[in-house]
Write a structure and sequence with these properties.
heterodimer, A: mainly alpha, two-stranded antiparallel sheet, globular, B: mainly alpha, 8 helices
């Protein structure tokens, strides 16, 4: 059933066209969500507007439930889906570094492209910075190649496999965690809105 | 463009929209969405074009752009082209396409450019070290319950919250 065998069905050119379409919908969704504006993204870290958390976790929960449901119905062969390999320590250190860049620069790579597309100069400078950063990584990774390749390298490791429980149970836990975070996010926003007297941050 | 811009979409609704697009990507392609990988391919190709002798001696660049026969004919490059077009289309519909700089009330646009460049550089290093960004790791790996992607996601929030206080002048 799914996923499709793209090259066999639509050929290389057709597959590329589908990738442009997928990116189009992705960029459209990000812009509609308000993520072409660095102030909306940075506000997450000052607890004034938690739309980053709300959009991200709603998207993860939606896709996760559709995938788990599709697998249960026999429509999706989830065993062939790409699962990002776990390189635990480079992932955690890289995540921390990336988080610092996120709050200093106000964007992540996808949202910066959307910001650039709507002619925001700060988005353009962030994208230029990305070019600098990825180039600096390529020039320096040789100095810590063993850490990058081998530290905490568990290969393809899912949370259900790690915890020894079914994907459905983990999905249930993720939904419960997301709902709890949304509840807290709404309370936090209401608190700051009342304190700041409705003045936008 | 004088008309007022649309409001941003309700975040939960936008999340469902984004989640359905992400699910569609897994259905059609067998993998999720991405962004930083495309930027890395463009940057690597530019570096290899400017410094051909150097690129052949750098293992990272050899893997990325020297050994593939047409490195830019990669799904992620087509996808980020789509991201730019989709962002532009949405911005045109919503009345938000105009040259401007988003910045906090206490800094100038010029200072904001410098911090955006600095933050982008830091983030660019981080995404390569972590093998992905908010799209390819957090959203895509999160939806298929990759343990490493979830660790990455919490690390991103931790890193940002840890320094947010110290850079508050940029945004508040």
């Amino acid at each position: 059933m799914f996923p499709l065998d793209l090259d066999a069905s639509v050929g290389h050119l057709g597959a590329n066209a589908l990738y442009v379409l997928a990116g189009f919908l992705f960029g459209f969704a990000l812009e509609q969500a308000g993520f072409g504006n660095s102030k909306n993204l940075a506000a997450q870290f000052y607890l004034r507007d938690m739309r980053v958390l709300k959009v991200m976790f709603t998207a993860i929960v939606t896709a996760m439930l559709l995938l788990v449901g599709g697998d249960a119905l026999g429509l999706v062969r989830s065993e062939v889906l790409f699962v990002n390999p776990t390189h635990l320590w480079p992932g955690i250190v890289g995540g921390l570094v990336f988080g610092v860049g996120f709050v200093v620069g106000g964007y992540c790579p996808g949202t910066a492209l959307v910001s650039l597309a709507t002619l925001k100069a700060d988005g353009l400078f962030f994208v230029l910075g990305l070019f600098v950063g990825v180039t600096a990584f390529g020039e320096s990774v040789g100095l810590f190649q063993a850490f990058f390749d081998a530290s905490g390298n568990y290969g393809e490791l899912t949370l259900p496999a790690l915890l020894g429980v079914s994907p459905g149970l983990v999905a249930f836990g993720v939904v419960a965690m997301a709902l709890a975070m949304f509840f807290v996010a709404e309370r936090v926003e209401a608190h700051f809105a009342a304190r700041d007297g409705g003045k936008p941050c | 463009m004088k008309r007022a811009a649309w409001k941003y979409m309700n975040p939960y609704l936008a999340g469902v929209f984004l989640g359905v697009v992400l699910f569609g990507s897994f259905l059609v392609f067998g993998h999720g969405l991405g962004a930083s990988g495309g930027v890395a391919l463009l940057a690597g190709s530019a570096e290899a074009a400017l410094l051909p002798g150097h690129a052949a001696q750098n293992a990272y660049l050899v893997n990325l752009v020297e050994s593939p026969p047409s490195p830019l004919d990669n799904w992620i490059v087509w996808e980020i082209l789509g991201v730019v077009l989709g962002g532009l289309a949405s911005g045109l519909l919503a009345g938000r396409v105009r040259p401007e700089t988003y910045h906090g009330p206490r800094i100038t646009p010029r200072a904001r450019w410098a911090y955006a460049l600095l933050g982008g550089s830091i983030a660019g290093f981080g995404v390569r070290l972590a093998r992905g960004c908010t799209s390819s790791q957090a959203l895509s790996g999160g939806a298929v319950l990759s343990a490493g992607s979830w660790a990455f996601m919490f690390a991103v929030f931790a890193g940002a919250y840890l320094v947010a206080y110290f850079v508050r002048r940029l945004w508040t």
